[in-house]
Amino acid sequence: MDKVFRAATWLLYIVITAVLLLLLVNFVEDNSQPVALIILGGKIPSLQISTLVIGSFIIGACAGLISAATLLVRHRLERASLKRKLKRRDAEIRRLRQQSLKGLS
Fold it and tell me: How far apart are CA 101 and CA 95, in angstroms?
């Protein structure tokens, strides 16, 4: 059953990827008009609209991945710090329990 599910999942991934590639090719064909942009006073060479749109999408995706990676690193560092703090407090609790047991005898 697991092999069937795994094969169906891979087949679904392949179908979705093929559909997305077909949509991308269609988008590029439909938006092949050249456009010249002026950004901050600088003129960018004429590029196809599809190139600009796909390029901005890729830049945005990379920016999102970088921001997510920085948050991930920050949370991992915070988790490591909390683990060290918990370890110190557990050691302190053990030490206090041993001292209180020594006082009873």
Answer: 10
Q: CA 75, CA 52: separation in Å to the nearest integer?
A: 35
Distance CA 24, CA 42 (A): 29
Which residue in this structure is represented by tokens 């169906």? 8
How far is it, in rounded angstroms, from Cα 81 to Cα 17?
41
Per-residue pLDDT of the chain (105 residues; tens, 9 = 90+): 788 889 999 999 999 999 999 998 888 888 888 888 888 888 888 888 888 888 899 999 999 999 999 999 999 999 999 999 999 999 999 999 888 877 676
Residue 10: both structure tokens together: 């891979």
pTM (2 d.p.): 0.61
